Structure formats: C-alpha cells, structure tokens
Amino acid sequence: MDKQTLKKLAAIVGPDHLTTAGEDLLCYSYDGSSLEYLPAAVAFPGSTAEVSAIMQLASAEKFPVVPRGAGSGMTGGALPVMGGLVMAMSRLNRIIEIDRDNQIAVVEPGVITARFQEEVEGLGLFYPPDPASRQFCTIGGNVGECAGGPRAVKYGVTRDYVLGLEAVLADGRIIKTGVRTAKGVAGYDLTRLLVGSEGTLAIITKITLRLLARPAASTTFLLLFDTIQSTTEMVGTILASLTPCTLEYMDRAALKVVADNIPFKLPENTEALLLVEVDGNPRVVEIQAEELSAIVENRKGLLEIRRAKDKAEAEQLWAARRAISPSTFKIKPHKVGEDVVVPRSRIPELVRFTEQLAAELDLVILTFGHAGDGNIHVNIMLDRNDPRELAAGRTATRRLFDQVIGMSGTITGEHGIGITKSAFLDREIDPPSLAVMQTIKQGLDPLNILNPGKIFPAPSTDAAELS
Q1: Cα angle at 339 between 338 and 344, to 5 degrees?
Q2: Which of 93, 382, 429, 434 could be joined to 393 by an S-S link, Cβ 3.0–4.6 Å?
Q3: Contact in structure between 455 and 418 (CB atoms under 8 Å)
Q4: DSSP string, 379-430
Q5: CA dist 167 to 18, 55, 76, 300, 462, Å?
Q6: Cα separation, 366 vs 383, whole angstroms
Q7: For residues 13 and 50, is the Cβ–Cβ distance under 8 A?
Q8: Are residues 276 and 355 in the same domain?
Q9: Which of 52, 44, 50, 78 lies closest to 175, judged by CA?
Q10: What CA dihedral angle connects 145, 146, 147 and 151, to 10 degrees?
Q11: Phi and psi of 293, rounded to 5°?
Q12: For the sheet containing 65-68, what is the strand order?
C-alpha cells in the first residue's frame, strides 16, 4: 500500500483514525486462533459513509480489506492473510434504537454483546445469543460468524434474531436488507445470506435485531456423574421431557482446568457433569425444576444433583464454564479448538470416539460445550514445537471431521470456517453447492478484495489446520 493510498485513506477517516505504526499493526495481526498476519494499515471508520468511501478506494486501487470486530474469533476470520487494510469497527459502537413496543433494536457492529444485553434487560427485554466471549465480543462479529452460545438449545443462534442489515458492498454501494417486522418475504433473503458470511460478501454497518420479553426467573442445576457415558446419555433423556434454557456438558479434563472456579468441591470420582438452567415465569421455573429432579433421580451413574442456592452461586458456575477455553492452556501451550455438531442422539458416540482418538494418538483431548444442541467443543491439546504432537494434532483434526461428517454432523457450529477449516470445507459441502457459493462471492466481490483467503482458500494462501 503506497503513500498516496494511505493519504487518501487518512482523508476519509481522519489522520487520527488511520495507523501504520508497527506496534499498532501487531495488535491487529492476530485473533483467537493464535495465528498472525500483519496488515499494511488499520483504519477506524466512524460512519457508513466512511466505510463506503474506503471500499470505493479499495475497488479502484485493488487492495484487500478485512473487517474486524474484537478479534475473538477462533478460525482466523479477522486475519489479513493477504495484507492490505484491516477495517476495525470499534468506533461504530452505538445502540441507535431500542423499540420496546415492537421489541426490536438497531445497533452498530462495534457494540459489545454483553453491554447490549444489559441495556435491553434494563428495559425488561431479552437478547438471547450468549457466546462465551460476550463480555468483549461484538454484535457485528457475532453476525459475521453467526455466533451461538449455551442458550441456543432453547432460543436459537444469532441469525434467528437478525431482522435486517445495512451493509456496504465491495464497490462501496450501500444496501439495506430485511425488515423491521415479524414477517417479510419480499425478494431474496439477503439478510440470511450475509449472516455468517464472515465478512467476505459485505461490511455490515447497522443491524436490526429482534428482542424477546425478559424471562422473569431462572434456576441452575449441576448434575454430576461417575461416567461420561451416563452423562451424555442423560442429555437425550432430559430433552425428551423438557426444553431447558441451557444444557452444557463438561468432561473430567475440562473440569480439572476450571476446578478453582467452581464454588464447592466435586466428588473425587466425578467424570463429567451437566450444567442445566431453566427459565421463564417463576411458577413454570419451579415446575420445570421439579420435573428435572424427577427425571434424573436414581439414574445410573448420577453422583449428585445440586441446585444453585442463589444467583451469585449460579453465576460462579457459569463463570467456570466460560473459563474453560482460555484455561485449557494450563495443559499444553497450543490447541486445536473445534466446534463440531452432531445429532444429539449421537453425542455419546462422538465422545467415545474422541476418547479412543486421544488414546491412539497419545494426545490430551477434552470435550465440553452445548450438549443441548449437539454442539460439542473438542479441544486437542498439543505443543506445536513438538513434531510428533503437531503431526498427531493434524491427524486428529482430519479424523474428527471425517467422523462428524459420517455422523450427519457439521465441522463448525458457531466458529465459522475462516482459514483454519477451509481445507476441510469440501468434505462437508458437495461440489455443486460449493460452486454456487463461489459464484455468489464472485458476483458480489469480483475483485476478491473483501476478506480474501477466507472460507475458499486462495491459491497463494495455505489454509492453516491448527489453531
């Protein structure tokens, strides 16, 4: 990127909102995948008009543009793998509107997810998507990856709450998609097309979100088991009778790394647990709590059923759950963090497979996640500097994906493809479907300047297999 281009960018966003300083570029060279690619510059637009002007310049001068939220993504989706400009959306951080009567909100992409949830809950409303990184991830990033979270079992994922978008195309044109109403089928559903597109089709500048009434009450249970098999089998048993707000699973290895975060000591022979929350009207919550207790009572393998005594204890349990991913580095310095999904009835089979894989390849593999919707996080722990472990990690990833696809599952439930999974996409998506996707990309971004190298790896870019 030459000096003249940089001057033009500075003229668009203002010199204080463009940087080429080495220390600044380094901060925007990595994300949650731990991979690094240095951009040529970072711009901080403050309006849709500025985003549009940047894209017009990028199209004229043919440099890559990579939109970026908080950089918490796990698959390299925010990395400038071909250099160019990182467009940091942090200045576009306004909650523009919260309409209580119609239960909708309009926000900019840089709004922090937890901040938005707090704002709407203060008005008696509810925005359910709750990724583990919600305290620092952004709504725009959630939309780009179609983030989920523990509450997805009952409430669904980000795409279920996005009614409409304002977005800037690769050539700078501004489009508006979707509606502000509960229904709307005029034309193609461009909103759904852009949700989960990882910044490869357009840059989102405004988001219209559907809200719900805030549940009046909730309660959290901890179910402790002496075998993984009995734990995973219990998932189907519970869901056959009621729909909890969350139904999370942790194996022994996951429990070990967050043991200090749990507010009480677990039985020594605890092999796995389920974290279950029910919510709604207070009377309904009590009925569901009684139903849950009756379902699990005297079940084989159950060591203990424990109900959080208050909100503070419940939050401690959830804090422990959210701490698993960063805490895994106590085991090894690096990991492959996959977010596979299988039909719920096949969770026991998937967990058995990961145990066998760990034993066969002499690796530490831990499993946890959203058992209620079959979304299991498989963390393959390793040291990249150990050639044997590195090779074993690659083998484990390939075999895991093959197993999941063979079980009618998917290789990603909420992290996206990015660059770490792009080499495996054709194992799940058939050639005609992939061709249609690439045709859409070519039609909206013929110069391949919007987040290039993602989802469909460019010939000059090797897809990374380890994160």
Answers
A1: 135
A2: 382
A3: yes
A4: EEEE-TTSHHHHHHHHHHHHHHHHHHHHTT-BSBSSS--TTTSGGGHHHHS-
A5: 21, 11, 22, 53, 29
A6: 15
A7: yes
A8: no
A9: 52
A10: -170
A11: -60, -40
A12: 18-19, 41-43, 85-88, 65-68
- Whether residues 244 and 295 share a domain: the answer is yes
Give the number of residues written for the chain.
Answer: 467
pLDDT at 298 (0 to 100): 85
Whether 440 maps to a domain, the answer reads: no
Q: What is the mean pLDDT of each run of 10 residues along the chain (467 residues)?
A: 96 98 97 94 98 98 98 96 98 98 98 98 97 95 97 97 98 98 96 98 98 97 94 94 96 91 89 96 97 92 94 90 90 94 95 97 96 96 96 97 98 96 95 97 98 78 40
Residues 117 and 127 sit within 8 Å (Cβ to Cβ): yes
Place of tokens 């034309």: 187
Q: Which candidate, 6, 132, 127, 104, places its Cα nearest to that of 61?
A: 6
Predicted confidence at residue 457, as pLDDT, reads 63
Domain that holds residue 261: 217-320
Choose among 379, 361, 252: nearest CA to 303: 252
In whole angstroms, what is the distance from residue 393 CA to residue 443 CA?
37
286/371 same-domain check = no
Q: Which pLDDT value is given to residue 461?
A: 38
Count of domains observed in the chain: 4
Per the DSSP assignment, residues forming a β-bridge with 275 are 222, 248
Tokens in use for 280?
Answer: 């709604």
**Two structure tokens written together for 133:** 């990184």
Pick left, alpha or beta for residue 448 (phi over 0 → left; psi -120 to 50 → alpha; otherwise beta): left
- Residue 454 to residues 14, 81, 144, 369, Cα–Cα distance (Å): 29, 9, 12, 25
